[in-house]
Amino acid sequence: MATILVTGANGQLANELKILSSGFPQYQFLFTAKEELPIENTDALTSFFQRNKMDYCINCAAYTAVDKAESEKEKAFLINAEAVGELAKICYNHQTKLIHISTDYVYDGTVHNPLKENNPVGPINIYGESKLKGEELALEKNPSAIVIRTSWVYSAFGNNFVKTMMRLFKEKSEINVINDQFGSPTYAADLAAVILNFIEQTEQGKDFSGIVNYSNSGVTTWYEFAEEIKSLVNSNCKINPIPTSSYPTPAKRPLYSVLDTSKIKELLQIEIPSWKESLKECVDILKTV
C-alpha cells in the first residue's frame, strides 16, 4: 500500500485531498499541519522521514500572504524556497516522489497568450520570487519531482476570493472589483483530483517529472469572476469594474497569467472542467454551509 504524505494539512488544497482520500482506499494518507511538521524545520523533516516510509509527498505547505510577503521577504523565502529545497533533498534520499505546488505569479504578466511551462519567468512580487526559487530548488535537489503551477485557487475551505465575494454580497450594496487582470480560476477540488491522477498513473508505471500547468479552462477577470459568483447566489449587490491602478496593493499582480494546460491534458489524457462549471459546484457546497 503506497503511503502519501500531505503537508500543509489546514490549507484549501489539502482539505480537498482529505475529502477525496476516502475514495482511494488503496493508499494510506498522512496529513500534517504546520504545527506537527513545519517544513522549514529541517531537523523535524529529517526525523519524520527516518521514522516514516513515504512513497509520495504532496507539498501543500506554503507562505501565501502575497502582500505581506513584501515586508516579510525572509519568511516567504524560508518557507517557499529554502524549506522546499530541503524537503526535495530529503524526498530524493528516501525515494519519495515529490509533488510540489507552485503559482502563476512566477510569470511577469506581460505576455498576452496562454503561458506555457517553458515561457520566460519573471516574478514581479516577493511571493512570486520565493515560489520560483522553490521550483528551482525542488528540481535541482530532486530531478524526479513534479511541480504544478496553478492560479486563482479557491475552494469551500480557507480564505479565498469566492468566499470573500459571498460574504461581501451579504454585507454591502456596492463593491469595486478589478477588471484588467486576466487569469483562470482553479477549483482546489479539481486540482486535488489531478494530483491523485498523477499518483495513480505513477503507480501503474508511468514516469512524470518537471513543471506542468493546471487551472480550470477558460479565461476571465476578477470582475467577471465576481459577476458569475453574484449570479450563482442571486445577489443584488452592484459590482463596479475598476482598473488595477485604482486599487494599489503592496505587491504588484501580473495583469495576465492565463496558464496553457495542454501539456497536463496530454500527459494524463484528461479533460479539464471549465471554471464556470467548477465554480457552480463550489458555490453549491458553500450555500449549504
List the helices and strands and how they pair.
Elements: E1 2-7, H1 12-21, E2 27-32, H2 42-51, E3 56-59, H3 73-93, E4 97-103, H4 126-141, E5 146-150, E6 153-154, H5 161-171, E7 174-178, E8 182-183, E9 186-187, H6 188-203, E10 210-214, E11 220-221, H7 222-232, E12 238-242, H8 262-268, H9 275-288
Parallel strand pairs: 1-2, 1-3, 3-4, 4-5, 5-10, 6-9, 7-12
Antiparallel strand pairs: 8-11
Beta-strand content: 15-25%
CATH superfamily: NAD(P)-binding Rossmann-like Domain
| Radius of gyration (Å) | 19 Å
Number of domains: 1
Strand order across the largest sheet = 2-1-3-4-5-10
CATH class: Alpha Beta
Overall structural class, as computed from helix and strand content, comes to alpha/beta
Query: What profile does the largest beta sheet have?
Result: 6 strands, parallel
Shape: globular
The total beta strand count reads: 12
Give an overview of the whole structure.
With 289 residues, the chain is of the alpha/beta class. The protein has a single domain (2-159, 185-217, 258-272), classed as 3-Layer(aba) Sandwich (Rossmann fold). The chain is 40% helix and 18% strand. The strands form four sheets. It has a six-stranded parallel sheet, sandwiched between helices. The chain has a two-stranded parallel sheet with strand order 6-9. A two-stranded parallel ribbon has the order 7-12.
